[in-house]
Amino acid sequence: MIQYVIPTKDNANKLVTSISTMSTNTKIHIESENESIFKKYNNALDKMEINDDDVIVFLHDDIEIRDEHIEKKLELYFKYRPNVGIAGVIGTNLFDRSGGWWLSNRMIYSRGRIIQGFDNGTEHPMIEVGGMDDSDIVSVDGCILFIKGSVAKYFRFDNNTYDGYHFYDVDTCFSLMEQGWHVGIIDILVKHDSEGPLSESWISDRDKFIKKWEDKGYIFPITKKQFKELKK
User: Fold this and answer.
1) 24 pLDDT exceeds 80?
2) pLDDT computed for residue 22 by the predictor
3) Is 109 in contact with 130 (CB distance < 8 Å)?
4) pLDDT at position 88, please?
5) Coil, helix or strand at residue 211
6) Residue span of the structural domain in which 213 resides
7) How much of the chain, in percent, has pLDDT values that exceed 90?
8) Which pairs count as long-range contacts for 155-159, CB under 8 Å and 24+ apart, including other chains?
9) What pLDDT does 196 receive?
10) pLDDT of 232 over the 70 cut
């Protein structure tokens, strides 16, 4: 089963309708409380009945799924990639102190694709040079995250360190890699309407994120190799 978690209700009705038309075996959870995204996602996980072969999709309410085969793709991807615990549609294989996957020299390190929407109604396809090669991905964009059920049953987002809306994606990727899981890229086409301006709260959360992982012994820029070495 595919279970969707939407952290706000503002534009959820349109998204729910879209999901319902393309998926036959789904549940949709909407978290509308005025809390951090970490707590919202954890609240949903605490209430959900999750089977090992489920896929939990965490997505913003300004996402438009443009892939009618999403359900089958998710099923096959996690079936044939048993080492992948979390995946997304676009990300990077190197994460530096700048704090965003798209800030780590996209021409070299980024992978995947997405359609970026803008306030004026235009849209731009972002197709990264590295394509869908996910062999060494360390982080994916949190606008839409896919976590396998056997992982989601026991994982919780770090609402002790963070109390806002940022860095839940890369922090989760890093946390699962520490547990030995891989991060993947799935070829599922979506459009994301938010440009994601870098606010003061984003900068504050970035500082918390950097401190947390440097205190653990990681040195930026971070690649998959460091997780293997620190595990030894």
Assistant:
1) no
2) 78
3) yes
4) 98
5) helix
6) 2-231
7) 79
8) 155/45, 156/42, 156/45, 157/37, 157/38, 157/39, 157/41, 157/42, 158/38, 158/212, 159/36, 159/38, 159/39, 159/42
9) 64
10) no
Residue type at 66? R
DSSP state of 95: B
Q: For the chain, what is the domain count?
A: 1
As given in the structure block, the two tokens for residue 127 are 């197709």
Take residue 86 and report the two structure tokens written for it.
């979390």
Question: Is 151 within 8 Å of 160 (Cβ atoms)?
Answer: no
Query: What average pLDDT score do residues 172-196 get?
Result: 93
Cβ neighbours, 10 Å, residue 208: 17
Question: Residue 219 sits in a domain of what CATH number?
Answer: 3.90.550.10
Record the pTM. 0.95
Strand (E) or helix (H) holding 185:
strand 182-185
CA distance 13 to 123: 22
